[in-house]
Amino acid sequence: MLGYGRDGEVEYILMTRMPGVAMRHLQVEGQARVDALRELGGTLRGIHDLDPQPFRASGHFPGDEDTQAILMRLERELRRAVQAALEQGDAWTLDISPADAGARARSGLNVIEQTPVPLHSNPGPEHVFLDPNTLGFTGIIDFGDAYLSHPALDFRRWAQPNDRAALMQGYTIDNRLRESFHAQLARDFHHHADAGLVPHFLESYGLCAIGLQSCSHRRARVRTMPRWARAGAGGVRCGA
């Protein structure tokens, strides 16, 4: 963004095209992937550290009012995710039940202390841009679904442990995390054998119901999901 202002009653934003190519269109592996995700993590930390009050005062950013509202949001969406997974029972291949997966994720909510912060909402491969020659990070596009809630929600699109580790390295390079934030991520995603699958479960069965992306966007990426996730992606209602 180059600038913002008003001319009488006309409000305007002056922007330019993000250089580079969406990460989803590039083959990014090894150290190049780690470096790109570290840069993304640092950028997300900068967004999350912004003062939320101007966003809230503008009236253009929906989201949660306080910590209790975050808890209510996550508990509600976990219930929806579990129900959607139960309705697609034949596609569920984990050793634990959908209810148990939801309970494991729910246990992490007990340590939430953060107040709502500005979120991108979907900083995934389609919105992260890289230089196609160097594979260096150039930026993030599409803040149209930005909202206020818990910062960990901006990590859900990167469910694989190696990707999450690189993001967290960049996220914490200048400022350490609160213990409650670290504990929530660890409980939800790392401290059990299905660490790489539970985030996919929440992503596949819960994201559309949260309303952070349209169903058309989710259908476009169904082919990249595990079998049980592909089945769940088609069975979740849009809307709050």
Question: What does this 3D model show about the protein?
Answer:
It is globular and about 55 Å long. By secondary structure, it is mainly α. α1 crosses α5, α3 runs antiparallel to α4 (98-107) and α7 packs parallel to α9 (227-233). It has a single domain, classed as Aminoglycoside 3'-phosphotransferase, Chain: A, domain 2. It is built from nine helices and seven strands; from the N terminus they run βββααααββββααααα. The protein has helices at 30-48, 52-58, 67-87, 98-107, 161-171, 179-189, 198-210, 215-220, 227-233, and strands spanning 3-7, 10-14, 21-22, 117-119, 128-130, 137-140, 147-149. The model is unreliable at 187-200 and 205-240 (pLDDT under 50). The two termini are 30 Å apart. A three-stranded antiparallel sheet has the order 3-5-6, covered by helices on one side. β5 and β6 (137-140) form a beta hairpin.
